[in-house]
Amino acid sequence: MAIPVDELKRRARPRGLPFRVNKIGHVVLNVSDLARSTRFYTELLGFEVSDVYGDTMMPGGMVFLRCNGDHHGVALVGGLDGPARGDGFHHMAFEVSSLDEVVRARDHLRRHGVAIDFEGRRRAGCQIAVEFRDPDGYRLEIYWGIDQIGSDGNARPAAEWQGARSLEAAIAEPVRGQDTSLRDPALLAK
């Protein structure tokens, strides 16, 4: 079946809605080993534990994790039987404040034996990212520099998307308007 690209692009937020969603609030993942997944998200990704439910409150237990002032951005529910199949879930992305942090995140993950599925720049959005999986196989992304949509509502034209298959290539060949200067150029020399 052909994807109706033009029709989908015309979809817009209806006028007069009584609310507006501002950001993704949180993601809840079913995991097979609650302690192992909590270690991964805290020790490797730097999340902090806000609260924990024992088995009496939630079968399998539940851990609430935060990366900012919100009580939780990720919650983990124990008791998944085997690895996540991922049906219906594609990936979850975490924004960082600088390009240097993306490079440091990639190097940190590698040092801890986490396989990198992709690094560089995809197309739409033009963010520079590193993609990997958590212990249950959930796809995760750490990114910086996603395009911002201005008050005119227009996104960067597809002709300006410029994929890159490594962080080094994304840094060496920035898209229009994206400053890929590293604060610490020695990061790529490592």
Radius of gyration: 19 Å
Largest β-sheet summary: 4 strands, mixed
Kindly state the percentage of residues in helix: 10-25%
Strand order of the largest sheet: 1-4-3-2
Plain-language structure description:
The longest helix is centred in the middle third of the chain and has 13 residues, at 99-111. The model has no long low-confidence stretch (mean pLDDT 92). With 190 residues, the protein is of the alpha/beta class. It is built from four helices and eight strands, in the order H-E-H-E-E-E-E-H-E-E-E-H. 18% of the residues lie in helices and 22% in strands. The protein has two domains: 24-82, 2,3-Dihydroxybiphenyl 1,2-Dioxygenase, domain 1 (Roll); 83-190, 2,3-Dihydroxybiphenyl 1,2-Dioxygenase, domain 1 (Roll). It starts with a helix and ends in an 18-residue tail after the last helix. The strands form two sheets. A four-stranded mixed β-sheet has the order 1-4-3-2, with helices on one face. A four-stranded mixed β-sheet has the order 5-8-7-6.
Strand-helix topology:
Elements: H1 5-9, E1 27-30, H2 34-44, E2 48-53, E3 62-66, E4 74-77, E5 92-95, H3 99-111, E6 116-121, E7 128-133, E8 139-144, H4 167-172
Parallel strand pairs: 1-4, 5-8
Antiparallel strand pairs: 2-3, 3-4, 6-7, 7-8
